[in-house]
Specification:
The protein has helices at 4-24, 29-43, 51-58, 60-72, 75-80, 82-106, 111-122, 126-135, 142-164, 171-174, 201-232, 236-256, 261-271, 278-302, 306-311, 313-337, 342-351, 358-368, 374-410, 432-441, 453-461, 474-479, 495-508, 521-530, 540-553, 558-580, 593-604, 606-615, 632-639, and strands at 423-426, 446-450, 467-468, 487-490, 513-518, 534-537. Mean pLDDT is 80; it is low at 174-191 and 631-640. It is built from 29 helices and 6 strands.
Length: 640
Amino acid sequence: MDGMLFHAFIYLAAAVLAVPIANRLGLGSVLGYLIAGILIGPTLGLVGAETEEVQHVAEFGVVMMLFLIGLELEPKLLWEMRARVLGLGGLQVLITAVLIAAAALLLGYHWGLGLAIGLIFAMSSTAIVLQTLGEKGLTRTDGGQASFAVLLFQDLSLIPVLALIPLLAAPGLSGLWAAGPGGSGAGAAHGAISLVVGLPGWGYALVVLGAVALVVLAGHYLSRPLFRYIAESGLREVFTASALLLVIGIALLMTLVDLSPALGTFLAGVVLANSEFRHELQSDIEPFKGLLLGLFFITVGAGIDFGILSAHLATVIALTLSVMSLKMAVLLGLARLFRLQPGDQWLFALGLAQAGEFGFVLLAFSVQNAVIPAELARMLSLVVALSMLLTPALFIAYDRLIAPALRTGSAPAPDSIDELGTVVIAGIGRFGQIVNRLLLASGVRTVVLDNRADQIDLLRKVGIKGYYGDASRPDLLHAAGISQARLFVIAIDDQDRAVKMVEHVRRTYPTVKILARAFDVRHLYLLQKAGADLVVREVFDSSLTLGVAALKALGMHPFKVERMARAFRRHEAEGLTSMYDLWDENPDIARNLVLQARIREHVGSLQDALNSDRLQLHDRTERGWTPPPRGFNRELDGDE
């Protein structure tokens, strides 16, 4: 069975089946796509020769990703990153290439071949690294920013590398290739159509600068009127088409002048970062980016040649581990040189240790230009693919092993607590500080604990006293005076630690009342089961307040709205109590059919509860809303 529809079905089915499973197992989407590619390619043989062509199309996902990243960066921020882009990125590419070239020389290879391999392996995977950093919320960390700076320099250096590779041709290989595509220089890497073929150096420089200037000026002056005109039409699909046209057009222009399409679209994104249409562009491009990137990762997995891998298994594995170890050592050294924090150093080194997707392009280009023998290039392609396959595992190791160890080992000693209070509060973030301020203003003495030293320092600067330390540690809780306290308030984000704290305090200090913050209903039940006296969902009151404001804004009488809000609160409390007996700790509610039925009944009874409450007479708590009795004003007038 063959054909475009069949292959589209296979690729999409592999992604739909494998990626959710990989995410559920904590492996991340990138590794899920790679595994899906291995299954449909080398394992089951459902896809074959067309994989390389699909990969060329899917690489456009990287172009779209760089455009979206550019939209997030203002030109000012990019200028502030120049030291890292040129310094950190430049040193990484230079040192890695030189060390790999030296290793190739020691093994008896030609120096040109060694330098070409070094330049190829100096590149890292923009697609995998940025996708994984974004998924894990690490893009804004110092390590994530340093990784982005290096990836940006690598993209900038791609054109000089393409220009240099033909000059490294080995004498013994040059006679094996006829003059043709690839032999003329960098322009061949992008196809036959080029505006710069045959131009002298100064002419090439002028054309390139002109193309870059065109992107900047058109993005600044022409994009806004164009998008405004299209937006006025009110046709969403036309705006989506124009967004795709912008990205594809800039990529095409960069290709015509032998520049990286990803670099051009990134520059366009930076120019449009301050545009009022930025968010609309992001929402239109994002689905295409995600789909094409996923397709690219699948083709990487499907393109692994298990025949060559089995024939040279030990060599490929040894080369892969050697390249990744060497790059990791270089990156760690540079991270220390540029004074990254320990956690960011490891994130930076592990994240960029692989070879990149441009490695496939550069290897093919090197074979065309008689720099690397075809047989060696096939083996090196396996090294590139295998290193990319191992990268998600390195991120998992960072998350589960290195980051926790660094947090434990590098954490400063907890503060010595020199006073006691009636209330001990664990957590002084956006939730805990409101509780603390109200208690302090009411004359209640509190002892505040938080395991974020920067948060404690910030609060001390504004006159709020707190102590650094992990409130889940029994010795620290004892030092904080939990045995003499009347209340223990848990206001931390970590759900598991909150439950364990409730269990410990209830078991060890049974007379202390425990008030806890819950993330959701399941967390609320877990805290109740652990022994908390009162549990409050963190967003319930704010959500109800906003709902009340919405009803008032729609013109409903404030008295009626307040009664409905009170009825809603009462109905919700009764429902939580009744459903607690049916709840179990299994997070998959789909298996608890009895609880599902009770939830449906609870949701369906809300309107009846509100209507019933509306018909009831006022009670004492509503006296402030009750109209004054007849003759009340005359009595006041008589008193005057």
